[in-house]
Write a structure and sequence with these properties.
A hairpin with a 6-residue loop joins strand 5 and strand 6. The chain has a single domain (2-191), classed as Maf protein. It has helices spanning 10-20, 46-61, 96-107, 172-178, 180-187, and strands at residues 2-5, 26-28, 64-74, 80-82, 114-125, 132-142, 158-160. With 193 residues, it is of the alpha/beta class. The structure holds inosine 5'-triphosphate.
Length: 193
């Protein structure tokens, strides 16, 4: 039994591999099965985008497929960057660091605390079958200085509620015990296998 992790984001791949390692299933990535796909995130919700990715990857691979779509919602910016978290900067070569810097510059005029949350929609799809999905979220606050070396994306400026640590200061095991993605993916465990 194999499961394909339908993402090109190496940070996500590492986290999801670790999450799924407790299950008795072979985990493969797009590059393992010779796939290099760009799926346009044209949905209006995280779930729609995750479904778009799961659909394309499961059709192309003919494998049980797990996809996620994640966004960071900052209250002072009315939920921005939200479902546009990946395309927050309109430049395909923009880095995670560029996105963090742009977010901090937009927050400068606003009073702290900069409350925020990560939201993740995870979708599990067998080729030709109806999908199952789950949502997970994680509450926190954006801070002006980057802290921590772990994780990816916006982790270094996201202070996790109740921990005094940014998500990038958590080990992968710690992130995987509390994160938005961990909650969503673990909720799908009963459907894997
Ligand atoms: P795929 O679509 O290939 O899965 P992506 O990087 O485009 O990869 P998303 O659309 O879900 O994935 O991510 C939107 C943005 O949010 C992107 O810039 C990510 O780096 C960032 N992001 C996603 N999950 C994150 C997490 O757990 N912690 C910090 N940032 C995250």
């Amino acid at each position: 039994m194999k499961i394909l992790i339908a993402t090109s984001n190496t940070g996500k791949i590492a986290e999801i591999k670790s999450l799924l390692s407790v299950l008795d299933i072979e985990i493969v990535t797009p590059s393992d099965v010779g796939l290099s796909l760009e799926v346009a995130e044209t949905g209006s919700t995280y779930l729609e985008n995750a479904l778009l990715k799961a659909n394309v990857y499961s059709q192309e691979s003919n494998l049980l497929t797990l996809a996620d779509d994640t966004g960071l919602e900052v209250a002072a910016l009315n939920g921005i960057p939200g479902i546009h978290s990946a395309r927050f900067i309109n430049d395909p070569h923009a880095t995670d660091k560029d996105r963090r810097s742009l977010l901090l510059s937009k927050l400068q005029p606003h009073a702290r605390p900069w409350k925020a949350r990560f939201v993740c929609a995870a979708v599990l799809m067998r080729p030709g079958e109806a999908a199952v999905h789950a949502l997970g979220e994680c509450q926190g606050e954006i801070i002006p200085q980057e802290r921590g070396e772990h994780g990816f994306g916006y982790d270094a400026i996201f202070l996790v509620d109740g921990t005094h640590k940014t998500m990038a200061e958590l080990t992968m095991e710690e992130k995987n015990s509390t994160s938005h993605r961990a909650k969503a993916v673990k909720a799908l465990f009963p459907f894997i296998g």
